[in-house]
């Protein structure tokens, strides 16, 4: 439960910016596409901390790194609530991203080592709980005519309470960590060039890149699409975006139960199909269909990321799994870093109605690369 709470803390800030930005950019006197810059800085910090997290974890332990990382995100969010200039937000986005990357890398690896596959889905389900609660908190503050800064302040203090829980729970981690150190065997380390020659890895990196590009872009710009293309009020748009994250959360909860009935590959294909259905519903010119559309897109996203993570040892072997896991996470965060910013620039010229075909194009690439990955893995393992 402590690990699940830590992943709530990881999800809380991820959805705040998209929900608050239609109001924030006016108060900050910033161009609307500048949300992509903040998102890029956060994701860039996450890439860096993910790549170096193993060294810090080896030295300080999972519990200490997780606690310190959540504290970094809490202080950054509290700083957001007092920032009056866009430049300050950019500076605060650095520790926000660095903290998030360490938590993500540490806990994904920890759960993969110590818990069953269903817990991987439920772990990311709790991320979805945090991501769904964030816009709800922001929407409540906006509906009461409070500033977006008060929403960030509330989430910052929630993070502080999670830091206290992590500090209290530190002894619970010690035994598991010692058991892991005793069980670990020397690992053959390969260069990135050698790993990239493994059949199917390039496709896997593109799949991770595309999936996280879809999830992050829709989460960041979904509210702006509703405000500027469907004439929603900002608080109503924020509440509807929370439905997207509720879909992710609910889907991952259900996926934890059906993971033993369906293979990871089938769950990924099923999720992609549901996203396609959600985009089709979103194209309909009726406001009444927006709620199910946002929910369906989130529901489709739900099983993809956990299933891809859990499939890594089967796809590439246990010997290289940890190194490849890091490469996949880095590729995912690069997508989060670049693609929301790219869409922000594109939408400033073409309008926010382009969100649907933009997401659809990336999804088409992902569907093909998923098929190609599975084909190449089957070809290699069947020899």
UniProtKB/TrEMBL annotation:
The portions of this protein that span the membrane are 28-48, 60-80, 86-110, 122-143, 155-174, 205-228, 240-259, 266-284, 290-309, 321-343, 355-373
The alphabetized UniProt keywords are: Membrane, Transmembrane, Transmembrane helix, Transport
Main localisation:
membrane
PROSITE patterns reported in the protein's UniProt record: MFS
- From which domain of life does this come? Bacteria
Q: Which InterPro entries match?
A: MFS, MFS_dom, MFS_trans_sf, MFS_Transporter
Question: Topology with regard to the membrane?
Answer: Multi-pass membrane protein
Q: Where is the Major facilitator superfamily (MFS) profile domain?
A: 1-378
List the subcellular locations.
Endomembrane system
Q: Which PANTHER family match?
A: BYPASS OF STOP CODON PROTEIN 6
By sequence similarity, the record places it as follows: Belongs to the major facilitator superfamily.
This protein is called what? Answer: MFS transporter
